[in-house]
Structure formats: C-alpha cells, structure tokens
Amino acid sequence: MPNNLPSIVQISQLTRCYGQHTILDNITASVQQGDVIALLGKNGAGKTTLLETILGFALPDEGEVRLFGTLHHDIDAKEKQRIGFVPQQDELLEQINPHEHLAMFARFQPNWDQALCDRLCHSWEIPLITRISKLSLGQRQKLSIILALCHKPQLLVLDEPVASLDPIARRQFLAELINIAVDQQTAIIFSSHIVTDMERVANKVWVLKDHRLCWQGELDTLKESVVRLHITATGALPEQLQIANTVREVRHGKTAMVTVSHWQTALLPTLEEQLQAQIRVEQLNLEDIFLELHA
Ligand SMILES: Nc1ncnc2c1ncn2[C@@H]1O[C@H](COP(=O)(O)OP(=O)(O)OP(=O)(O)O)[C@@H](O)[C@H]1O
C-alpha cells in the first residue's frame, strides 16, 4: 500500500553558516517513521548544528526543514509535543528535584507513560528527592533521557546522550531505544562518538564530513559498500593499482591493502585478473568505516 504520509523530517538544500564560516553546505535528507539514524562526524563536524537546525532552534541560511510536513519554525505547541530532544548540555531546572521535574513535565504531555517513567527511574536509580543541582553528570543525563522518552515522541533527537552513562546504563538505554523504535515506530536521530553503540541500534547512517553528508543510507549497504581489499600478487604489483573509488592504499612489496567505497562483489574476478593477484575482501565494522572515511 503506498505511504502518502509526509516524512517525519525533510531537509532540503540546507546551508547553515556562523559568520563567514559555512558549517553545513547544501544538505538534503529525510527521516521516515521507524528510522534509527546514526549521525557520525568528527568533533566540530557540525552534528549539533545540524540537529539544532532541524529542530528549528536556528533558521537555515538557505534551504528549509519540514517537521511532519510543516516548516520547522511554523510548528505549533501540539506538534512540538511529538518531539523528544536530549541536548548535549542538559537544560534541567537546577532548584527542584527529579520527582518534581518529571511531574511538572508530565502535566503538559498528553501521552506521558508513567509506567515507563517509573521503570526507568527505578532501574537507573534516579535519586528522586535530591535537588537536581546535586546530581552527577550521568544522573542528569539519565533524567534528560527519561524526560525525552516518556512522552512517547514520534521524533526523538539525541545529541551525545550517552557520553556520561556507565556501561550498564548505556546498554539499558540502547535496549529502550530499540524497544521504542520497534514498538512505537518512533523516528530517531542519534549522535554519538561511541560508534559501537550506534552500530547496535541504527538502521541508517549519516556521515557528516567537510560540511556535507558524505554518506547517507542503510547501515547494511554502507557495510557492504566500504570494504578493505587484501591483495597478494603472483608477480609484481603494477605501479598504479587504479582501483575505482579507492579511499586509502597501503602497499608492501607484492601485497597491498586497499580500502574502497562503492564496492560490488561482482568486481572481484575482473580485479583479480587485472592485477594478477588473489584478493580477500574484508568487511569492516562501522567504527573502522568511520576511521577509513576520515583517513
Ligand atoms: N554559536 C557558535 N558561533 C560560532 N561558531 C559556532 C557556534 N556553535 C558552533 N560553532 C562552530 O560550528 C562548528 C560545528 O560545531 P558543532 O557543535 O555543530 O559540531 P559537532 O559535530 O557537534 O562537534 P562535537 O562532536 O565536538 O560535539 C564548529 O567549528 C564550531 O566551532
């Protein structure tokens, strides 16, 4: 059956500058229901800028962003309730305690899931009656996540949500993300430097590099596309290997290790013939792919 619903997020030719500096250059991308998108990029690549621009905290210099089909700066309070956001630096109210904060927030959220809130507060050992200014960084981060998850958003945007979480809480958090993505079909955009975590939960990847999305697509396709070729020649290797879409090349005598993008298995026999070599194709994990794309 055709799906005529608008994308949850539609980014069209988005450019964003700070002063003279272009941070995001002509980005076009979309997010559909049920997508879990890992947003990857080096420090300063523009991940926070992209996430905040998507949410309408700043206007693009060029292009536009639509949330649920509406221009992001035109969405009303009701539509805002469909969004959950965990910012890199939390915006918790310091002078009240988590119990009061959660209760206050829940009053304005028609879809608030008190059972989920109670469960997470219990398993994450949130000190409910301690003033927020006295909580540890990790406890604050957990509270921000609970605030963002429990109103059952249709779009969840997470900017480095796990940086301060211990490994147990991180695993629990990832499990919750998978649950809500599967059960509620929530669209999730998730930025983190813990790439192994992203690989566990994401089905799509956006890689931000040189101000653009140098990759956007299915995680599995990315993993099939970027591979490392281990080449062992029977004789001498040609001076120029001339392998299409080479990302990085390391040579040593009759052997070479070449990382390529846009790989297709069907290319293998021709390449072996061309180089008079045996080639082993190594699949890479997401962290290795990220490192190779930035080598
Ligand atoms: N308010 C601002 N004014 C001027 N430049 C800014 C401002 N905020 C961010 N920048 C610059 O924009 C670029 C992108 O920053 P951003 O915070 O979006 O990167 P990031 O990918 O989220 O980085 P990190 O992984 O370190 O959190 C950086 O060069 C940063 O210095």
Largest sheet: 6 strands, mixed
Secondary-structure element order, N to C: EEEHEEHEHHHEHEHEEHEEEHEH
- What's the level 1 CATH class of the largest domain? Alpha Beta
Do you know the CATH topology of the largest domain?
Answer: Rossmann fold
Q: Tell me how many strands there are.
A: 14
The strand line-up of the biggest sheet is 6-7-8-3-9-10
Distance between the termini: 43 Å
Give the overall form. elongated
Mean pLDDT: 92
Radius of gyration: 22 Å
Low-confidence stretches: none
* CATH arch. level architecture of the largest domain: 3-Layer(aba) Sandwich
Q: What ions, cofactors and ligands are bound?
A: adenosine-5'-triphosphate
Overview of this protein structure:
The chain contains ten helices and 14 strands. It is 31% helix and 30% strand. β9 and β10 (212-218) form a beta hairpin. The chain folds into two domains: 9-222, P-loop containing nucleotide triphosphate hydrolases (Rossmann fold, 3-Layer(aba) Sandwich); 226-293, Alpha-Beta Plaits (2-Layer Sandwich), CATH 3.30.70. A six-stranded mixed β-sheet has the order 6-7-8-3-9-10, with helices on both faces. The mean pLDDT is 92. The protein starts with 8 loop residues before the first strand and ends with a helix. With 295 residues, the protein is of the alpha/beta class. The structure holds adenosine-5'-triphosphate. Adenosine-5'-triphosphate binds at residues 18, 23, 41, 43-49.
